[in-house]
Amino acid sequence: MTPAQYRIEGTDRLMDSLLPSPNFSHLYRNCSLAVAVAVKSVDDPTRQEVRVVHIPTGEIVFQTTATAQTF
Question: What does pTM read for this prediction?
Answer without folding.
Answer: 0.75
